[in-house]
Structure formats: C-alpha cells, structure tokens
Design goal:
With 422 residues, this protein is α/β, with parallel strands linked by helices. The chain has two domains: 223 residues, Glycogen Phosphorylase B (Rossmann fold, 3-Layer(aba) Sandwich), CATH 3.40.50.2000; 182 residues, Glycogen Phosphorylase B (Rossmann fold, 3-Layer(aba) Sandwich), CATH 3.40.50. 45% of the residues lie in helices and 16% in strands. Strand 5, helix 3 and strand 6 form a beta-alpha-beta unit.
Length: 422
C-alpha cells in the first residue's frame, strides 16, 4: 500500500508519545513492504530537512506561514498548520495515488477532511486521547468545547477509527456517538530490541545519579495534571519513611511543571526530587534500566506507552488503575493503585522495593506481555488490516473497485496475515 501519515509531531520534533508512535508505525509499515509518506510540521528548535527520505520513509516538514502565529494561540496555530499541511499533502496526491490517509489526533483534522473531500481518498483516524477525557468529563471553556467538536468531526470524516485500548474504544463510542462497528482497537507498540539496555551502561547511569544505598524511582511523561505526578510527590515522603533513602527522577516537560516544582518546595523534597527536563530516547532507556521502579500515576491515560517501555527495559512498573494502564498490567505485569490515592501508591512502591522476589516476577511477566501483545510487527499487521477495511468500505460507498495493493512493494510475506495480529 501507499500510505500518507498526518501528524503534528514527528522526529526530531517529539513532544510526547504521539510523535514516537507515528515514527515507529512508519518504520514498521515500511519494513513490512509498504510505501510511507509523512506530512508533519517543521520546528526551528529541532531543525531537519523540509523534504527527505530517511529509513525508507518520505518525510515532508511544513514551515510556518507568515505571519508566524505562536503555539500559545492554539486554535489559530492549528488552522495555519493545517493549511500548510493540506497544501503539502495535496502536492503528493497530485504526484501519486495513495491508498489511505492516516490522521493522528485532532490537530490534523482540517487537513485530513480537506484531502478526503478533494481527492476522495479514505481516511483512517487514530484518536490517541480526548479533550473530554483529559478533563475527566468536564469541558471547562470555549477552547475545550471547540477541540471536542473537532475531535468529533475527525471521527465523522474517518472511514475507520482506531483507538489504542478498549477503554478508549468505549469512551470514543460514547462521547462521539459512533457505531461500535466503526472502531478498531490497535494497541500502541514497542520494538523490544530497541529497549535492550546494556547492564553495564545501566549501572554506570545509576552510579552517576544516586548513591549505592539510595533507591531510584522514575516518572517519564508529559508534566500535566492528569499524569498524576502530584500524587507521586506526596507518596514519596511515605516511601522514604519505610524504605530509607529514595530519590525520584521526573523526566519530561509540560504546562504543570512549575506547579510541581512549587509542591516539591512545599513538601521540602528538593534534595530528593530531580527534574531532568526532556530526555532523548537513548537517555530515557538508560533511566529505565537504572531505576528500581517506574511509575505511571495517571488520573487519565488512554494507553500508557511509558509503562510498556519500562516493562520492555526490564523495569517493574506501578500504575494508576485507570484507562489503558489497567489493561497493560491486567495479567500481573505490574502493580496498580487507585488514582490520586497517595497512600495506596506509597504502599505499592514499598512492596516493589522491599518484598522478596516481587520485582523479579513483575519484570518477567512484563517482558513476556510486551513481546506477546505490544510488539510492533503485530501492531503493524493489525493496522494494515484496518486500512484494507477502510479502502473496501470507501470503494463500496463510491461504487469503485478498490485498488489492489502493489505487490511489488512486498518483501515476501503477503500484505495481510488475517487472524494473526496480536
């Protein structure tokens, strides 16, 4: 197949999990014999070529149109970006016939809808999160309501809608009133080989960060209220009282950063909490490998990729019992606690750090589950199945025969291995 991916972030411009997800999906589809083009945004802070083939993937990065609109003016920025993205994508569509456009989240809705209306190409949309869910079912202001409406519009325009968990499937079906047969659950993935951490490198990283008798707890993710780091800060004092010297590393950036730093000062934890800022993939994997336990204390979490990444690195995980995180550890791959309950979180952390054999069991279960359910090869095959269904449904509605995939692009295996995806 020839696939066009639309995403507002793509390496080297990575803000959160979405950019890494789209990049990994692009690599996987290419490795499985498909031709992949990506339209994304340029970022002056992370300069990259405006048009390049990298790892077999064609990446087009659109520059900002004058006058430059700051990202803080979000809606105006999104409209300007979508105008540029649709123009760049239309140029590609004039040069090639694409089988499907895959749009990732509401920030590319306008471009995706315009391409479908102009070129008649079927759209598949992945809803990575919702504004409704981020605010626990409350849309506090006009901008939140507008984002919610644009999310609905994307699900309406899309021929198929992908969610990363059954939790998100239920949420999207309920709040956007979608027929259940339009939604496909395809989990996020990891390549276990990417998360193989050399033990010597992990020990060296650990030695550079903490003393030999200090336990190391890691949070990695965006610093937003719904990620629950504030609960982890309150739990840390209890953990230190029971376990002894314990240091928390907070890896990430976000709008809640200053508030969390204020809470650290208020709780007198300055010597025991380190904010690392944004970290690149290799450094993040070394942090996973060095940590005694990784925590995803989210209040709202559509999937929870950081938990899967930590499991792939061989790190035990403790997660909030919510959303996709609940599904990730459902087979004993990690411990869970009631979100926003710092006592319950402290108890779970104390168990991992002190109970004989528990951490080792969690690591073994986590690695097995990662390889069984979240390997990118299976995720890629399942995604292509969704593409094929969208193409067939679009053709049925328009009265056209679906174009057969270009078998010359295949390596050896057939494009679809129906019934084998995890």
């Amino acid at each position: 197949m020839r696939v066009l991916l639309l995403s507002w972030e793509y390496p080297p411009n990575v803000v959160g999990g979405l950019g890494r997800h789209v990049a990994a999906l692009a690599r996987t589809l290419t490795a499985q014999g498909h031709e992949v083009h990506v339209v994304t945004r340029d970022d002056p802070g992370n300069p990259a070529p405006p048009d390049e083939w990298v790892d077999g993937i064609h990446v087009v990065r659109v520059t900002e149109a004058p006058p430059v609109i700051p990202f803080g003016e979000l809606i105006a920025w999104v409209l300007a970006f979508n105008n540029r993205a649709q123009t760049a994508a239309s140029k590609l569509l004039r040069e090639h016939r694409f089988d499907v456009v895959h749009a990732h989240d509401w920030l590319v809705t306008y471009a995706a809808a315009g391409l479908r209306e102009t070129w008649g190409v079927p759209v598949v949309a992945t809803i990575h999160a919702t504004e409704y869910g981020r605010h626990q079912g409350w849309l506090p202001g006009p901008m939140n309501k507008l984002i919610h409406q644009v999310e609905w519009w994307l699900t309406y325009e899309a021929r198929r809608v992908i969610t990363c968990s059954h939790y998100m499937q239920d949420q999207v079906q309920e709040i956007f009133h979608l027929p259940p047969e339009k939604i496909d659950v395809v989990p996020n993935g990891v390549d276990p080989r990417d998360f193989e951490v050399d033990p010597e490198d992990a020990r060296a990283t650990r030695a550079s960060l903490t003393g030999p008798r200090t336990r190391m707890v890691l949070f990695a993710g965006r610093l937003e209220y719904e990620k629950g780091v504030q609960t982890l800060l309150h739990a840390l004092t209890r953990v230190r009282a029971q376990v002894g010297p314990t240091r928390l590393f907070v890896a990430g950036i976000g709008t809640y950063s200053e508030e969390l730093r204020r809470q650290v000062r208020e709780l007198k934890l300055q010597r025991h909490v380190r904010f690392t800022g944004f970290v690149r993939d290799r450094e993040l994997r070394l942090l996973y490998g060095a940590a005694d336990v990784a925590v995803a204390p989210s209040i709202y979490e559509p999937f929870g990729l950081v938990a899967v990444e930590a499991m792939a690195c061989g790190t035990p995980v403790v997660v909030g019992d919510t959303g996709g995180l609940r599904e990730i550890v459902s087979d004993g791959s990690g411990l869970s606690f009631t979100p926003q309950d710092d006592q319950a979180l402290a108890d779970a952390l104390i168990r991992v750090l002190t109970e004989d054999g528990l951490a080792e069991r969690l690591v073994a279960n986590g690695r097995a589950r990662t390889e069984r359910r979240y390997d990118w090869k299976a995720v890629g095959r399942r995604t292509v199945e969704v593409y094929a269904q969208a193409i067939a449904e679009e053709a049925e509605l328009t009265g056209e025969e679906p174009r057969r995939p270009l078998r010359a692009l295949l390596h050896e295996a057939p494009i679809l291995e129906l019934g084998t995806a995890g």
